[in-house]
Amino acid sequence: MASDILFLINGLGMGNSTRCHAVMQPLAERGHRIHVLTSGNGLKYFESQPEVTSLMPMEAFFYSKRKGRISGWQTLLAGRQLLRLARNKRTQLEKVLAHIKPAAAVIDSEYAIGPLKRAGVPIVALNNSEVVVSEYRRWHDNPRAVRSQFWFIEFPDYLFHRTMCALVLSPSPHPGQPRHPKFRRVGLIVRRAVREAARAMANQTFPLPREIRNVVFMLSGSIFASAVPLDTFEEPFHIDVVGREGTSTARVTYHGRLMNNLPLLVKADALVINGGYSAVSEALALNKPTFVLPVAGHAEQYVNARLVAELGRGYQACEDTVMDVLLGLYRTNAWSGLHAPEPLSGLDGAEGAAAAIDALIAARR
C-alpha cells in the first residue's frame, strides 16, 4: 500500500542528499510518495529528482569553527543561536505536518523532530554515528585534535539517535554487531549510477602510481572544504577539481559545484576527497586509490579516513601534505604502506534501507 514518507535532510553538504536519494528511489518504486524538507545544496539537488512529490525549504543546523577548524567547544557555545534555529525548524515542520500525514519520517543529520514525536510518526534515521563510536572506541591512539568534537558532537549524536528513533540504519563498509538493537547495519549507500559503474569496473585493480593520468579532487560542498594548494606543484597528471571555483590551466581544471560528478569519477585513476561518509562510500565502491583529507578536528571524518586506510583502499592525508604524498608515491611507483584490499560489506545499502523502512510502515498498519 502506498504511503507518504517525509525525508528531513540537512542540505549543508551534498552527501546527505545523494545518500537519501539513493534510498528514495527504491521506496518510490514500491509506490510510496516522497516528500522532502531540506536546506542549502539539498534544495538545488532535489528540485529535478522525479521521485520527489513535494520539496520544501527549512533552515539548517551548523558546526562552529575556530582558527579554520571545526570545534566541539565553539559549537556548544553557539547553543543560543542553535536553539533559535531549532524553534524555527520546529515551526516549519509543524506547517508541513498540517498538510502531510506521513507513515514514517526519515531523518539525515536533522534533529528538530519534536513535532514528529508529538504526532506519533515513527522516525527512521540514516546515520553512521554507531559505526563512528564503535571504531573510535576500538582505537586507543586517536589524536587529541578530534577528542572534543567526538565527545561533544559525535557521541551525543549516537545517544540522540539511540534514544529518539524507532530505527537507525547505519551504512558500513564491513559487517559488524551494532552497539544497540535500535541500530541496523546495511551495506554502503551509494547513488544508483555509482553502483552500476562500480559493477562494470568490478575486476579492475589499482593502477601503478606512474600509470595515473587523471586525479579528481572531490572536495566537500560545505564551508569546511579543504583548500589544497595546487599552484605550487608541477603535476605529471591532469587534475579535475570538483567543489571549488578557480582559474583552470593546462594541468588543472576547476569545475565548481557539479550535480553530476560521475563521469569524472569513472575517468579518474585516483581520488582526493574530504572525509564525508557519502564521498568515502562512493570512493570505496569505485575501488579507486583514495587520499582522504578529513576536515581538521572532525572526529567522524577522521574515523572515515582511517577506515579507508585500514581497508587497504587508500591513505589518510591533510591538505598541506597530500600533494607531497601523491607525488612521492608517483616517484617510487609503488603504493607503499597499503595491504591487499579487504572485501566490502556490499553496495546494496539503499535497497536494504528501503526494505527496512517499508517493513516498519507495514508493521504499523
Written account of the structure:
This protein has 365 residues and is α/β, with parallel strands linked by helices. It has two domains: 4-187 and 348-363, Rossmann fold (3-Layer(aba) Sandwich); 192-332, Glycogen Phosphorylase B (Rossmann fold, 3-Layer(aba) Sandwich). It has helices at 15-29, 40-46, 72-77, 79-97, 114-118, 129-138, 147-164, 192-200, 262-267, 277-286, 299-310, 322-332, 349-363, and strands at residues 4-9, 33-38, 52-57, 65-66, 69-70, 104-108, 123-126, 167-171, 183-186, 214-218, 238-242, 252-256, 270-274, 290-293, 314-316. The strands form three sheets. A seven-stranded parallel beta sheet has the order 3-2-1-6-7-8-9, sandwiched between helices. Strands 12-11-10-13-14-15 form a six-stranded parallel beta sheet. Helix 10 links the parallel strand 13 and strand 14 (290-293). The radius of gyration is 20 Å and the shape is globular.
Distance between the termini: 10 Å
Q: List low-confidence stretches.
A: 71-77
The number of helical segments is 13
Principal-axis shape equals globular
CATH class of the largest domain: Alpha Beta
Strand content: 15-25%
Which strand order do you get reading across the main beta sheet?
Answer: 3-2-1-6-7-8-9
Global mean pLDDT: 89
**Backbone structural class:** alpha/beta
Total number of strands: 15
Biggest β-sheet description: 7 strands, parallel
